[in-house]
Amino acid sequence: MKNNSIRTVVATGIGAALFIIICIFVNIPIFGNTSIQLQYAVQVLFSVIFGSRSIIGFFMGFIGQVLKDGIQYGDISWAWVLASGITGLVIGLFGKKYDVTMGKFSVMSMIWFNLAQALGLLIAYGVVTPIGDKIQFAQAWSYLYAQSFVAGVANFITIAIGGTLLLAIYASSRTQSGSLTKG
Description:
Its main location: membrane. Pfam families: ECF-ribofla_trS (PF07155). It comes from Streptococcus thermophilus (strain ATCC BAA-250 / LMG 18311). It is a multi-pass membrane protein. The chain is mostly helical. The chain contains six helices and two strands, in the order αββααααα. Strand 1 (about 25-30) and strand 2 (about 35) form a beta hairpin. Helix 2 packs across helix 4 (about 80-95) and helix 3 packs antiparallel against helix 4 (about 80-95). The chain is globular, with a radius of gyration of 17 Å. The mean pLDDT is about 90.
């Protein structure tokens, strides 16, 4: 049990650090303070690999986004912090549907994965970010929903392409269950 706790803390720390670094240095602006964020593909990998402890995906996004906002903007948008965490959490919660640690990532697994990420992003960017930003920044609803929609779509595409590729590569690097036979 203690080993799992250490593994969880280390994975969360490494994941949050990668989240910040990728977010700050690989950033493609598209609308307002919204940009294509490639760190979500890496967050997906951590969320799925440590799916049984999906809290890693949550804290990777949560901590990473807090530090990134603080470093980059000097102000923290708590709705977007929560959205990053929720995205990792939801993807991790459904991780058993697309368990890449066994060396398989079938078309059906890819479909489940993308359905899970769509659900996570719908909650994060369809509900949490517009309402949270309205409370925190009192911006116009039309702007908030436009910004959230653009971010949600950009993140969906990023995760669908980058996340699926990372998971497929990871799965191909694992030994498939039952592929080794006794001689």
